[in-house]
Amino acid sequence: MAAATTLWSMFMIMAWFFVRLCLGILYPAYASYKAIRTKSPKDYVKWMMYWVVFSLFLALETVTDIFLAFWFPFYYELKIVIVLWLMMPATRGSSVLYRKFVHPLLVENEEHLDAYIERAKSDSYSVFKEFSGVGLQYLARFVVQATAALQNVAHRSTTALTNPAFAVKSDTAPHAAEPALAHVKKTRSEPAVAGMNDDDTEVLVVEEVPANGRPRRGAAAKKRVVVTDEV
Questions:
Q1: What global pTM score does this model have?
Q2: Of residues 58, 52, 51, 49, the one with CA closest to residue 16
Q3: E-strand spans in the chain?
Q4: Spatial distance between the Cα atoms of 138 and 12, rounded to a whole number of angstroms
Q5: Of the candidates 135, 9, 8, which has an alpha carbon nearest to the alpha carbon of residue 70?
Q6: How far is 181 from 95, CA to CA, in rounded Å?
Q7: Do 94 and 50 meet the contact criterion of CB atoms below 8 Å apart?
Q8: How far is CA 182 from the centre of its chain?
Q9: Is a pLDDT exceeding 80 seen at residue 144?
Q10: Which pLDDT score is estimated for 188?
Q11: Cα-flanking dihedrals φ and ψ of residue 227, to 5°?
Q12: CA angle, 48 as apex, 47 and 51 as ends, to 5°?
């Protein structure tokens, strides 16, 4: 039962959109075009009344969809019937509503509506002028800040390219190899182990030569190796 109700609701929603588009908008628009082309005052007035009533109906529908669409029974079916009643020549619902309700209401409040519209026009112009001025100020400030930031980035990039400290090393540079051994010097030194005679001790001073061929300087470049005469 619940599934059937859901399917029926979906079908009615699709049917409502079809009816509103085809019968509520497209067909009256074409009929209005025909009335303008044939210059028929009767048809022209009829479809003008329809558009006024249909516009009010759409405005009211926007509010009722929020509060009634999800719980009011037969909501979309009722809207379909209303649109058909408004546009069908046999019923002339739009003409009836316009003559009995809409036209008297507009005539009664026409002066107030005109004054409100004129005030809204003037206020909207002043508000638009004020907000546009503020918006232009913010836009100019943003452009200045963005330009300064781009100039800063460009300056840093130029400095990195021109300064040797920031130069990028070539990938083809030879990798550091293990230091080669060279310049082995044989010297005499004090006994390195207690109980050994001076004649029994020899010290080999090995200098490390790095891969670039330049011997290192200082104590860190030498290794002392104690060699004894014993086997």
A1: 0.53
A2: 58
A3: 180-187, 201-209, 222-228
A4: 50
A5: 9
A6: 111
A7: yes
A8: 66
A9: yes
A10: 47
A11: -125, 130
A12: 85
Q: What is the mean pLDDT of residues 164-173?
A: 48
SS3 32: helix
Between CA 29 and CA 92 the distance in angstroms is 16
User: CB of 215 within 8 A of CB of 198?
Assistant: no
Sorted by sequence, the CB contacts under 8 Å of residue 49 that are 6+ apart come out as: 94, 95, 98, 99
> How many Å apart are CA 3 and CA 7, to the nearest integer?
6
- Secondary structure (3-state) at 170: coil
Distance CA 228, CA 191 (A): 10
CA gap 173, 72 in Å, rounded: 81
Q: pLDDT digits over 20-72, tens only?
A: 999 999 999 999 999 999 988 889 999 999 999 999 999 999 999 898 888 88
Nearest CA among 69, 82, 67, 60 for reference residue 9? 69
Residue 47: how many CB atoms within 10 A of its CB?
23
DSSP assigned state of 213: S
Q: Give the residue among 116, 99, 126, 122 at the shortest CA–CA distance from 45.
A: 99
Q: At a CB cut-off of 8 Å and minimum separation 6, what does 94 contact?
A: 46, 49, 50, 52, 53, 54, 86, 87
Selection from 199, 183, 127 nearest residue 227 by Cα: 199
222-228, strands of its sheet edge to edge: 180-187, 201-209, 222-228
CA–CA separation, 224 and 180 (whole Å):
16
- The SS3 of residue 167 is coil
Question: Distance between CA atoms of 198 and 188, rounded to whole angstroms?
Answer: 8
Instruction: Choose among 131, 23, 158, 30: nearest CA to 87.
Output: 23
Higher pLDDT, 183 or 20: 20
